[in-house]
Amino acid sequence: MYNGIDAVDIDMQPIRNYSEVKLVYFISFLLLVGFFVLNMFVGVVVENFHICRAKQEREEKAKRTAKRAKKLERQRRRMREVPYYADFSPWRRRLHNLCSSKYFDLTIAAVIDLNVITMSFKFYFMPPAFDMTLDYCNYVFTSVFTIELISKIIALGPF
């Protein structure tokens, strides 16, 4: 680059900074070539990214398809299986349906909440009548929880 700026003519000695206009040419050439090479590099990177992404999308689609097929096969198998409670007697099946319902669970949760509330009513120097009422409430709650235990053991089995 310096030799190009210093060049005067053929068979003549170079003169330092003889043609400074060539400096603009060299700088613009370097910038354009630099941008061109950078643009090519970015283009290659972007193209490889698109190729990798397309390959990854194909792999993910194949995985999703296989996963969906496995899920459908599991559902088909599950639909063909007879439920474990199918051979229960009619009254045990009704008890099983009752114990498996969400309303039964909500009722037991409400009884637990009431039990916690009544347990929080105790205080020091309680009147005997109030103490006896709380004891009866605890007996009722204990019997409800015992009935729940027995009905779930009968309906769902001991294990």
Write the layout of secondary structure elements.
Layout: H1 2-6, H2 21-80, H3 90-100, H4 102-119, H5 128-156
Helix pairs in contact: 3-5, 4-5
What's a concise summary of this model?
With 159 residues, the chain is mainly α. It has 2 domains: 2-80; 90-156.
Notes on the protein architecture:
The longest helix has 60 residues. The chain has five helices and no strands. Helix 4 packs antiparallel against helix 5. 77% of the residues lie in helices and 0% in strands. The chain folds into two domains: 79 residues; 67 residues. The termini are far apart. It is mainly alpha-helical and 159 residues long. Keywords: Coiled coil, Membrane, Transmembrane, Transmembrane helix. This is Ion transport domain-containing protein. One of its GO terms (cellular component) is voltage-gated sodium channel complex. It is a multi-pass membrane protein. It is found in: Membrane.
Keywords:
transmembrane; VGCC_Ca_Na; 5 helices; mainly alpha; single chain; 159 residues; coiled coil; transmembrane helix; membrane
Anisotropy-based shape: elongated
The biggest beta sheet reads:
none
**What proportion of the residues form beta strands (DSSP E)?**
under 5%
How many distinct helices? 5
Query: How does the helix and strand content classify structurally?
Result: mainly alpha
Number of strands: 0
Give the termini distance in whole angstroms.
90 Å
Tell me the Rg in angstroms. Answer: 43 Å
Spell out the helices and strands N to C: HHHHH
The residue ranges in which pLDDT falls below 50 over 5 or more consecutive positions are: none
Give the count of structural domains: 2
In helices, the fraction of residues equals over 70%
- Average pLDDT, rounded to a whole number, is 92
